[in-house]
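Aim 2 progress. For Vitamin B12 transporter BtuB, the working sequence is reproduced below.
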Amino acid sequence: MFYPATKRLGVTAILMCSLAPCALAQAAPEATTELTPITVERPAQADGPMSTVLVPRGMNSSPVSDGAAILATAPGLTAGRMGGHGLELVIRGQQQNQLNIIDAGSFTYGACPNRMDPPTSSASFLRADEVLIERGYASVTHGPGGSGGTVVLNRKAPELASGKRVEGHLSAGAGSNGTGTELGGQISVDLGRGFYAEAAAERKNANNYVDGSGRTVRSAYDQTGAGVTLGYAANGIDLALDYDYSLVEDSLYPGAGMDSPFDETTIYRLRGGMDVNAGALRRIEGSLFSSEVDHVMDNYSLRPLLGMAMRTPATSDTTGGKLEAHLDFGRTTAKLGIDHQSNNRFAMMYAGMPPMIPLLDNADPSRSRFLMWPDVTIKQTGIYLETETELSPKAMLKAGLRYDRVKASAGAANFAPALDAGNTPNTYYTMQYGTTFNTAREEDNVGGLLRLEYALNPDTTVFAGLSRSVRTADATERAMGRANWVGNPDIDPEKHHQLDLGLQIDKGAWYLNASAYADWVDDYILRDQFSVAGVTTYRNVSAELSGIELSAGWEQGPWAIWGDATWTKGRNTTDKRDIAQIPPLQGQISLAYGIDGWRAGARVNWALDQNQIDPARDPGPTPGFATLDLFGSYELTKNAIVLAGINNVTDETYANHLSRANLFDPTVTQVNEAGRTFYLKVEAKF
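Predicted structure tokens for this construct:
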């Protein structure tokens, strides 16, 4: 078989994870792979045309990588760039709150109205044992929304080797062309009687890079992360109390009018489960979490000030939890649950001439200019049921139903900032939509799915799925309170109706995954930058999204080749316009050779021209590109490996179509990617 059901490999095998996270994730449905010294368990349900599992440790990617950049190595995923930190993940042409990002059971929503800190930028990939990526709407159990896909960072209780009380792993990396340095590690301690403790820390320091034409791209940032877990895992019970912390400082953004000197995320989390045997009830799982994000952006502390000084401190606080029962009725298994999340966001812009900067730094009320997020609270409570039924030895039916109660309010919609001539957020809502946000808005949202899988033979499975998912508007879409950027309190929730078809073939030496989808969207929430001159507004339109996703691989002896391709189309059918921020046809193909503890390979990343754009939002058409990367690794000992590579070997000048317009350099259209870059990493386990 291409990936045996159970297999122990030396450190050299990390290469197939590090060089080919995509290939590793496309294994046979029953595969579980253990890598020594780093153990990887790959759940069967995670592998297939609509899902991928990444193992962050051992990936042969450039150090100091943003979370979305790590995820973008998977088939069908890409990311838009505004700077070096805070890339915007895109799956099936959808982004932001159209995706669910779940870090060990918790949700975090960034505190920057301009998306400098999406949740992938603060998620702790260092502490994740595996990352499950689902493309499209694959489960009703992952919370509200998630029409484009879901990313779940999973953690497991440590399983120390027999006789060991302490284990851990360390990693260090550095690179040229602004890559900077990265140092991280995690330690697990067996406290006895089933109790354990874990601690982790990492430090990333990135500098500005140059693109293929030698232009400097402002991409520097410093990030410090840490976390502690106290847990218990024994006798069918697992319980963990987590504390996670992330601090990002001096983050530069050529794709924005401001930079961010400070962004801090703090997460508290209690999670666990208990095996039971009470009739059909087999297990109960639950979690509680609190995440707090504090963000500051300005246009003077990290760049030359031109004109008026501006500073925006903002907060985003989320609390929530989940309770889920696992049931077994023989041929049918089920998950029945309830979840809740409440997110509050507040952002005030302060402005003044340069001598007034000290007042801005102290958030002096006399310098308040716009109330961007007027104390916006969105509460969502959901109940769900999801079943899997074995119809026959060859056929499985998955069915799910979900109901969400949503309540959104703006506690400061009538507050007038000192410098806004008496205008309040309600003033702008009335001006653009003829409404106010004096009363809460409530929604009753219903979603669900049906998915049939059928095994044509032991090597080939086909599937078809239908789903409906509903996404409520976020704080920006519903309540942004600037004169030139106005949220819509009466915006309707976005309703996706998707059809998925797919094929999975695993012939041992080679595999093929293929899927196609169509998504008919009622009340698509359009960020409208063309209907009202000089003002960004939000309205509902009808839209259609569709695409094809392919991945394949082959292995023979020391040789392996794998690749993927993704095509996406998005259309605003109400206005007969293309939807903005839709990636072009793109993909990658890799070839590797390995023997006796070392492996080396090459990868071509490519994208075609993208001319199907919304000229009001996209910076413009984007030319296609092809870049060459080289990578390799060598097993130093049975517990240590060195990984190295060269990205963009031919020093091409190019930009991802999803990247922001470069506001800092008028000689280029978008924020370009880095030119030729060398990197080196060492990972070890003790």
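The domain at 6-685 is CATH 2.40.170.20 (Maltoporin; Chain A). This observation will guide construct design in the next reporting period.
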